[in-house]
Design goal:
- There is one protein chain.
- The protein is mostly beta strands.
- It is 0% helix and 55% strand.
- A hairpin with a 4-residue loop joins strand 7 and strand 8.
Length: 117
């Protein structure tokens, strides 16, 4: 079955970096558009970045210039490189994969990242 598993979260100091990974299984990964979202406690889930099946990338204004989304189709994995992190409440980062044909997305279980001194 379709499955996405995120990893790479943790505690980092302001100004630091984290790289999140999302490994896919049960799919033809190259046929999927991949998105990253983040959700803080008690808040809505916000879109962060997208990489299309053809490799085009898009970012929320709040992370543009600091975050980089990329994919390795040979490893069935999408990454989110987060740089110059700002102090914030702990948030869970989710990846979501959407096949270009059916457009029915699937969520991963999330990985938590905390930016704090």
């Amino acid at each position: 079955q379709v499955q996405f598993v995120e990893s790479g979260g943790g505690l980092v100091q302001p100004g630091g970096s984290l790289r999140l990974s999302c490994a896919a299984s049960g799919i033809i990964f190259s046929d999927y558009v991949m998105d990253w979202y983040r959700q803080a406690p008690g808040k809505q889930r916000d879109w962060v970045a997208r990489i299309t099946d053809s490799g085009s990338t898009y970012y929320a204004d709040s992370v543009k210039g600091r975050f980089i989304i990329s994919r390795d189709n040979a490893k069935n994995t999408v990454y989110l490189q987060m740089n110059s992190l700002k102090p914030d409440a702990p948030a869970v980062y989710f990846c979501r994969g959407t096949p270009t044909v059916t457009r029915q997305g699937t969520w991963g279980q999330g990985t938590q990242a905390t930016v704090s001194s």
